[in-house]
Amino acid sequence: xxxxxxxxxxGIELQAYKxxxxxxxxxxxxxxxxxxxxxxxxxxxxxxxxNSAYDNFDNEITRAKEIVTxxxxxLDRKFDISSQLTRLYNFFHYQMARIIASRNLELIDELIPLxxxxxxxxxxxxxxxxxxxxPYAANG
Length: 140
Known about the structure:
Layout: E1 3-4, E2 7-8, H1 9-23, H2 27-50, H3 54-73, H4 81-102, H5 105-131
Antiparallel strand pairs: 1-2
Helix pairs in contact: 2-3, 2-5, 3-4, 4-5
């Protein structure tokens, strides 16, 4: 395949496909994707820590924290649940800071199910709204 700026044609097409997929997602689907990304990064960080790759470990936890910050900043504050979600996101952020400081992998094991539960709640809300034919307006 031809290369352009270090990317093969396949790589360019794959990138375009990914961008199109993201641009056509509902807000509920995007929210679920972000929660999945947090979980993925936490699991990857745990693997890295077990292999003593602490620089990469810190980078994965930091990226997960950045996603949580993004979710918190994206909240629509006119809804009452936003303050509860802010408290939850602050807790996630605090726990991730503790994980980086202590490298306590048990904290990752405690945090992942909480994030997965929240993701699953949004997943169900998205599914129900699609059944009703209404796009789900996620509040992060």
